[in-house]
């Protein structure tokens, strides 16, 4: 039994109607965003179609290995996204990837072991996506804040380094 529902033409038309409202506001306010909106709509359509096919394959395959692979891909994209949101912090990708992977894995394993959810793709994929998405946002905010603090404290950090402190010691508050 499939719990999925098909998107109707009317629903797609309603969504495009909202995009039309955004285009009208852009024209009315002379914002010149119509081209950007068109590109965003095309990208969204292509990305959602590709993701839909990938998720359908995982759900139809009903394999935990496919679920693990999809969660791993989510963690990689989450790490890239969080890294891109905090460009001032070098070398953050690998720690972000480890953190997102562990957060997603630990949460899903705990939920399955405790019997909250059965180990089925229809539960694990959306839950994994939510955990990784929220973890990515929190990590990006924390990383951005760290970068801002280091930038604001640059003189103090450099002075501490000049006095012989290690980089770790100099970065401490």
How do the strands and helices of this protein lay out in sequence?
Layout: H1 9-28, H2 34-61, H3 64-85, H4 93-113, H5 121-152, H6 154-162, H7 167-171
Keywords: Membrane, Transmembrane, Transmembrane helix
InterPro entries: UPF0014_fam
Pfam family, one: UPF0014
Q: Overview of this structure, please?
A:
It is flat, with a radius of gyration of 22 Å. Helices cover 79% and strands 0% of the residues. The chain is mainly α and 173 residues long. The relative contact order is 0.09. α3 runs antiparallel to α4, α3 (64-85) packs parallel to α5 (121-152) and α4 (93-113) packs antiparallel against α5 (121-152). The N and C termini lie far apart (56 Å).
| Average pLDDT taken over every residue | 93
The helix count comes to: 7
Rg estimate, integer Å:
22 Å
Q: Sketch the major β-sheet.
A: none
Q: Strand share of the residues?
A: under 5%
Class by SSE composition: mainly alpha
Shape, per Cα inertia axes: flat
SSE sequence, one letter per element: HHHHHHH
Instruction: State the separation between the terminal residues, measured CA to CA.
Output: 56 Å
Flag low-confidence runs.
none
Helix content: over 70%
What kind of oligomer do you see?
A: single chain
Number of strands: 0
Main location: membrane
Membrane topology: Multi-pass membrane protein
Pfam families: UPF0014
Transmembrane segments: 12-28, 40-58, 64-82, 94-117, 123-146
